[in-house]
Amino acid sequence: MGAIEVRDLALAYGETRAVDGVSFEVAEGEFFGILGPNGAGKTTTLEMIEGLREPDAGEITVLGERPWPRNGALLPRIGVQLQASSFFERLTAREQISTFAALYGVGADHAEEWLERVGMVEKADTRVENLSGGQMQRLSIACALVHDPDVVFLDEPTAALDPQARRNLWDVLGSLNDSGRTVVLTTHHMDEAEVLCDRVAIMDRGRILELDSPGALVRGLDAATRITVSPELVSALDVAAIGGVDSSALYPPKKFFGAARNIEDGGSLTIFATALVETGSMMDTVIFEEFKGTGNAELKLDRKISDKRIFPAIDVNPSSTRKEELLLAPDELAINVKLRQVLSGLDSQQAINLLLDRLRKTRTNIEFQMQVSKSTPGNGDD
Hints:
three-stranded antiparallel beta sheet; 36% helix
């Protein structure tokens, strides 16, 4: 018997089938991932397995027990890190995890060990409201594991983190099943599933589309593997000498993205903006750096903003238009400078919220600029 067995699981919200006939098994000691876009049914599936939600149909066993109705014998054997974590107010990180430990009858020394394991010792006496997003996720994971559960559920633990914080958290997550613990992770990042998981179920619209090891899933795509190497490290001639390597792989996109290239039947193509969606992929960043010099504007989109359902999900401060002085009159340029000075002091979400709020309250660009000019102090204003 596996650690988790799910058979024909289903749940509907009105006409929407959030989970539609899902079946899978998770072996003891396995790091199992459920990968899919927002709205795929990942969290709903996890909540039913955890015993937080009653299914419409299907069977679930966790460690040989049925999680629904709420099973008091099962609860001490599982750990749950929810997608949105809540902590007790006005407590430090050490006080938070000690409280969780006490609820399970675990000593303070063991709570301290988990603070050290997730790299939170230096922040142990910091109140949770003063922790960064990555630090709060580390603390949340420690609280879910402080009683040493046999099975732990992690619901998109890196969803709201920047790429560096995501990778730092991977080090913590990768060690969770070292001692034979079973881990179930939901994510919408393929690179995360590939690094952490033994097997991955790809889920969309309430159904599992594929289930296999990450390597097998990637090989099943029958797609070329693309590797980008800095030209300072290896020359084009050396690359061409490697069997199976296409040294001209970047030529077509370079040609396409070049400004004012000739196209069929006359005319030309001019790149006026280059957009980067912050995915955490180094490949995306390399390609962006390669092409952004061909455009007159750079637009950076931030997944953290889109996850908050704020659209357009533009990271305002690193987005810009080149040679603004050639496009704008001096008075318009001065207003833009004042606005950017205000936005530069805000984080990305606050900046786009402020900008959208101002835009909604005006009907034209001129009206918007006049409002900014009146309400935004300049460097020389009193």
